[in-house]
Amino acid sequence: RNDAVVISGRKLARQIRQEARHEVEQWVAAGNKRPHLSVVLVGENPASHSYVLNKTKAAADVGISSETILRPASITEEELLDLISKLNNDTNVDGLLVQLPLPEHIDERKICNAVTPDKDVDGFHVINVGRMCLDQYSMLPATPWGVWEIIKRTGIPTLGKNVVVAGRSKNVGMPIAMLLHTDGRHERPGGDATVTISHRYTPKEQLKQHTIRADIVVAAAGIPNLITADMIKEGAAVIDVGITRVQDPVTAKSRLVGDVDFEGVKKKASYITPVPGGVGPMTVAMLMKNTIIAAKKLLKPKELEALTA
């Protein structure tokens, strides 16, 4: 049999960014203000700086204006809340995101909930999380939405299929499971799949019993080589959301690896996403879509205002 089709997240993301670019051009041509994204970046985490650069580059590419607001790791929670409040009230700012992780002395949940829900392009505000869990329109978190788009645009069926999501983080694993198992007829359509969520307390042997029956495996645990060929059903689709920096034993250079043993699994799967070049670019592309949604105020802000009043 042939190896799996390697799904190029870069190619798909390019397509989505092109759609976004077209949408921005039409919006601006109709006499509206160009969408604007503000990114708050706290501290010196090199990975965070690299991600934010990817986001602002993509924004420029689709015609969204953006700014990165840098603050030292020593910033107090109160100062950060003040900054967010200022950006919430700035009518030029359509989308607002605070890059995670934040320094330990700052409560991430408190910060996520400080961002106005209709500017919350990360989809991390408790109202957006709640609406997502109720299958209502909401700002969807970019990585889970990116995974959804990979599956849908590749034509991988989900209805009635078995899915395993390895990882239960509130920003990635949980929302992916939520999108995939929910009702396709609801306001925000879901995938109608049968979803199993595994996590750090799932014994490896048990995980295998689940994955071996799965039509789709989404690996979002942040554990290199968690998913190996022996765990995968012939012809399954494997989506790798993990990113871990490892030191190459030979070259001593650091490189990115996912949660999936790519070379082994691609001999058995029907579809597989690589790391890098799989889910990562999709996350950034969906963030652009969210910024446009925020700029167009498509999420009936009246409903959200009623809840925040």
TrEMBL record:
It holds the Pfam family THF_DHG_CYH_C. This is MTDC protein. Its cofactor is Mg(2+). Its main location: mitochondrion. GO terms for biological process: carboxylic acid metabolic process; tetrahydrofolate interconversion. Residues 7-122 form the Tetrahydrofolate dehydrogenase/cyclohydrolase catalytic domain. The gene is Mthfd2. One of its GO terms (molecular function) is methylenetetrahydrofolate dehydrogenase (NADP+) activity. SUPFAM superfamilies: Aminoacid dehydrogenase-like, N-terminal domain, NAD(P)-binding Rossmann-fold domains. Belongs to the tetrahydrofolate dehydrogenase/cyclohydrolase family. It is found in: Mitochondrion. The keyword Oxidoreductase applies. GO terms for cellular component: mitochondrial matrix. It catalyses: (6R)-5,10-methenyltetrahydrofolate + H2O = (6R)-10-formyltetrahydrofolate + H(+); (6R)-5,10-methylene-5,6,7,8-tetrahydrofolate + NAD(+) = (6R)-5,10-methenyltetrahydrofolate + NADH.
